[in-house]
């Protein structure tokens, strides 16, 4: 084989014998340039460091239940919103379009490995000039049909590595879509909890507002009976209006949570009012324990970790694409057809033609471009490896953070529940003694404000605990099933 570009002309008989034998031997010794990809082994802890009530630390990670984790709250409205978000969210639609593009690019890379075949037909008529001036011009017609083929032989694996890289990139796009779904479902649930929390806190304000109004009326009656001073009346009014002033703030938060939910579902603001009104105005609470599995289970479940691993595989294959440029490239082309000067003779035995070409080329000098391109792709592969390792650490951190937050919020809620019980008893006793003249009005106001504060804080804590559980489900990668991705991958195998 020559080391410089050349063209080899082969007769029709030669194609049927020596050329095909020669190429069969050549193809049998094909190699694939660049390193073969191996999934990196990353060390992970055996157990989680945080122990949480209601969480089974190393129990089997139930992917079926995790794929629809919002169902543990037993809230029909939340389930309906989650289903609508999966269908209509615009971020999901963008991710789906990116996946379709990546799948098409993978099929395109696979198609590059096959020959190109074209059919051609032509017909022409030419007239020569009368050079001698004696009326000796002539007219000639030509007709031709041909079947042309060209095949760039992938002897050193450049196209195979490109196909491998495109396939891994398509896998990363699949995982990116799942990651968008995981984040989406968590955001829907978090905003839904925020909406219900605002409703619950507004209900607490309404109850306390009624109690404070009653206290204010009692104070006014006692003032009219000259049993208290104007100071007591003013203090009761201040307390009443302070409580009333919190209502617009919560109503704004309520409306904003509704608007955010609508945006997540691909709806305009205000479109969800009737659907949200159909549910109970209370924060949903999980009805069962959660098995978080071992750290290694979570890494297999997290779409962002899986996507980082696929990007590492894609970049590893790119090293092979760059390395293959150091070797010769060979292109085999040929044509069989019919040529005749008369249309009636086009399909006769004498009109047959055949031609075969072998084009071989090798880059003799490029100033180090190939070597530096390999170095660039290798550096990008090292970057992708670091990104994968960072994604693993982030996944472990997210789960530990969610476990810590959920555990501490449980302890905080137990303390607040005890505080609400004691606060309600203290206020009831203080108002009874005030009506009997045994304590001053400041005692009543103090116990009433304390009760309102701990009730509101408890309602916020209940929402925070549910939100922490939702964040834990998100950290575990809940919202999709591996079986779904495997089914998607099988659909793309018939390229």
Q: Which CATH class applies here? A: Mainly Alpha
Q: Helix proportion of residues, in percent?
A: 55-70%
Mean of all residue-level pLDDT scores: 83
How many helices?
Answer: 12
CATH topology value? Outer membrane efflux proteins (OEP)
Helical/strand content category: alpha+beta
| Second rung of CATH, namely the architecture | Up-down Bundle
Poorly predicted segments: 1-29, 484-495
Number of domains: 1
The largest sheet is:
5 strands, antiparallel
Q: What is the overall shape?
A: elongated
Question: Strand-residue fraction?
Answer: 5-15%
Question: What can you tell me about this protein's structure?
Answer:
- The protein is of the alpha+beta class.
- The protein has one domain (32-117, 158-327, 376-491): Outer membrane efflux proteins (OEP).
- Helices cover 61% and strands 12% of the residues.
- It has helices at 12-28, 63-67, 76-88, 90-111, 158-224, 230-264, 273-277, 295-301, 303-323, 369-435, 441-475, 482-491; strands at residues 6-10, 55-56, 116-127, 139-153, 290-291, 329-340, 352-361.
- It has a five-stranded antiparallel β-sheet with strand order 1-7-6-4-3, with helices on one face.
- α5 runs antiparallel to α6 and α5 (158-224) packs antiparallel against α9.
- The two termini are 34 Å apart.
- Mean pLDDT is 83; it is low at 1-29 and 484-495.
């Amino acid at each position: 084989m020559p080391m410089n570009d050349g063209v080899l002309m082969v007769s029709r008989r030669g194609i049927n014998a020596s050329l095909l034998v020669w190429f069969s031997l050549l193809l049998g010794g094909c190699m694939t340039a660049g390193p073969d990809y191996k999934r990196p082994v990353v060390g992970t802890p055996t157990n989680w460091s945080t122990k949480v009530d209601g969480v089974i630390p190393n129990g089997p990670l139930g992917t079926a239940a995790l794929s629809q984790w919002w169902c543990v709250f037993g809230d029909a409205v939340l389930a309906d919103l989650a289903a609508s978000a999966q269908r209509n969210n615009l971020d999901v639609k963008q991710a789906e379009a990116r996946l379709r593009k990546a799948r098409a690019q993978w099929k395109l890379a696979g198609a590059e490995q096959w020959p190109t075949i074209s059919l051609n037909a032509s017909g022409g008529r030419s007239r020569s000039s009368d050079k001698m001036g004696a009326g000796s011009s002539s007219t000639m017609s030509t007709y031709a049909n041909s079947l042309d083929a060209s095949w760039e032989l992938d002897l050193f694996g450049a196209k195979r590595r490109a196909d491998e890289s495109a396939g891994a990139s398509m896998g990363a796009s699949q995982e990116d879509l799942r990651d968008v779904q995981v984040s989406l479902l968590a955001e829907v649930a978090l905003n839904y909890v925020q909406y219900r929390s605002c409703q619950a806190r507004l209900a607490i304000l309404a109850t306390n507002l009624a109690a404070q109004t009653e206290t204010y009326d009692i104070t006014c009656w006692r003032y009219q009976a000259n049993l208290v001073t104007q100071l007591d009346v003013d203090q009761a009014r201040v307390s009443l209006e302070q409580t009333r002033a919190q209502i617009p703030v919560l109503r704004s938060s309520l409306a904003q949570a509704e608007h955010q939910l609508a945006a997540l579902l691909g709806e305009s603001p205000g479109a969800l009012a009737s659907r949200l009104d159909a549910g109970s105005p209370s924060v949903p609470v999980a009805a069962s324990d959660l098995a978080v599995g071992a750290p290694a289970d979570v890494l297999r479940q997290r779409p962002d970790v899986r996507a980082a691993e696929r990007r590492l595989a894609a970049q590893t294959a790119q090293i092979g694409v760059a390395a293959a440029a150091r070797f010769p490239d060979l292109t085999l082309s040929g044509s069989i057809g019919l040529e005749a000067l008369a249309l009636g003779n086009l399909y006769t035995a004498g009109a047959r033609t055949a031609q075969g070409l072998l084009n071989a080329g090798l880059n003799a000098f490029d100033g180090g471009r190939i070597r530096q391109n390999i170095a660039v792709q290798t550096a990008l592969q090292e970057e992708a490896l670091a990104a994968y390792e960072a994604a693993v650490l982030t996944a472990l951190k997210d789960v530990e953070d969610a476990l810590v937050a959920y555990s501490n919020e449980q302890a905080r809620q137990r303390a607040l529940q005890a505080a609400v019980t004691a606060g309600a008893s203290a206020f009831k006793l203080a108002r009874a003694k005030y009506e009997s003249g045994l304590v001053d009005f400041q005692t009543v106001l103090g116990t009433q404000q304390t009760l309102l504060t701990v009730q509101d804080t408890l309602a916020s804590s209940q929402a925070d605990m549910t939100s922490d559980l939702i964040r834990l489900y998100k950290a575990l990668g809940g919202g999709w099933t591996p079986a779904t991705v495997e089914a998607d991958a099988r659909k793309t195998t018939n390229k």
